[in-house]
Structure formats: C-alpha cells, structure tokens
Amino acid sequence: MGTLLKELRDCCMHESSRQRPFCMEPEAAPTLTRRVVELVREKLLLRNIEADRIAGDKGVMHVFGYPAKRIVVEGAKRSTEEEIAVSARMDVNYARIEVQDEPLYGWPVKLRQKLCPCNYCFKFGACVHLVYALRATDRMDGAGRRILVSRRIGRKRSEDGITTLGGRPRAIGPALSVD
C-alpha cells in the first residue's frame, strides 16, 4: 500500500517541484525539447533571416517566438482538479515569460555562449529559442544531444595498398564450419 501511495504522489507532483540531478552547465529539459518540436510544428518559432543578414554576426541567430494557444482547465470540483488548474496556470506563466519583452526583430540568440536574453533563459538557463537555434545550426537528437555522423567511406586499405570493402572477407565460410 505504501508503494502505491508513493507512486500516486510521484504522479501528482508538478514537474517544477521534482528533484533534478546537479549539472555543471545548464541543460535543456526533455519537456523543453518536446515543446520546441511542438512550437515548430505549429509554426510559432521562426528564424528571422533578414535580421541575421543585417547583424552580420555568424554567432547570433534571431528567433521569433509567438505565444502558444492557451489550454483552459475548467471546473474545480475536487482537489485534484484544483491542482491541475494550478499547474496549468504555472505553465501559462512560463509560456508568457518566453515572449515577454520580445524585440521586434526576434530574440538574438548567441550560439557560441549558448545564451538568449529572454526571461525564461535567465531563470532556467535554457529556453525554446536557444534549443531551436542550436537544433537549426547543429545536428541534435530529441534529447538535445549532438548527433555524431560518420561520413567515412566503408573501404579499408590492405597492407599492399589495395582498397577493399570493409566487413567480413568473402573467402571465409560460416563462423562454425570445420572445413
């Protein structure tokens, strides 16, 4: 019974009250990365190419962030619905500070320093603008980690200098043959 109560408590806790491991530099949360994907799909995060050309700095990308649609949780009959409404209000406040005081040309995201001047990035160390800019300029997976791609041709050089295809030699039979 105690285990079930712990699981229920973990499910009902808001994500901002959960403990996170200590990191030496800020990392984008998985929820933030999912939010970036959703905002890009809804075309609420866009790159301002004209402002990038005018600025001329390759290390700065200007990103427009438009406010997302609000989801209203109606009814407060039980305490769980009240908690849902409170967490929904917290998410609305976080979404509000992402676009609060946004410049006309978009947020100037500094790619080398991994900084964005928005209030959300100042508070949490990463924001949707920063994750979007890093994903647009660098290959990153869904978790925000850099994808390493091997572009090597699959040929090996033998001792004689003759190039051969990599892998298992064709003259060798099955692995467990007794020939």
Short note summarizing the structure:
The protein has six helices and five strands.
Task: List descriptors.
single chain, 179 residues, alpha+beta, three-stranded antiparallel beta sheet, two-stranded antiparallel ribbon, 37% helix, 11% strand, flat
Task: Write up what this structure looks like.
The protein is α+β, with helices and mostly antiparallel strands and 179 residues long. It has a domain at 25-144. The protein has 6 helices and 5 strands; from the N terminus they run ααβαβαβααββ. It has a 3-stranded antiparallel sheet. It has a two-stranded antiparallel ribbon with strand order 4-5. The protein starts with a helix and ends in a 14-residue tail after the last strand. The mean pLDDT is 75.
Largest sheet: 3 strands, antiparallel
Which band does the percent of strand residues land in?
5-15%
Count the helices. How many? 6
What's the shape? flat
- The N- and C-terminal alpha carbons lie at a distance of 63 Å
Helix content: 25-40%
What structural class do you assign from the helix and strand content?
A: alpha+beta
Question: Could you tell me the radius of gyration in angstroms?
Answer: 25 Å
Low-confidence stretches: none
SS elements, strand count: 5
**Biggest sheet: strand arrangement:** 1-2-3
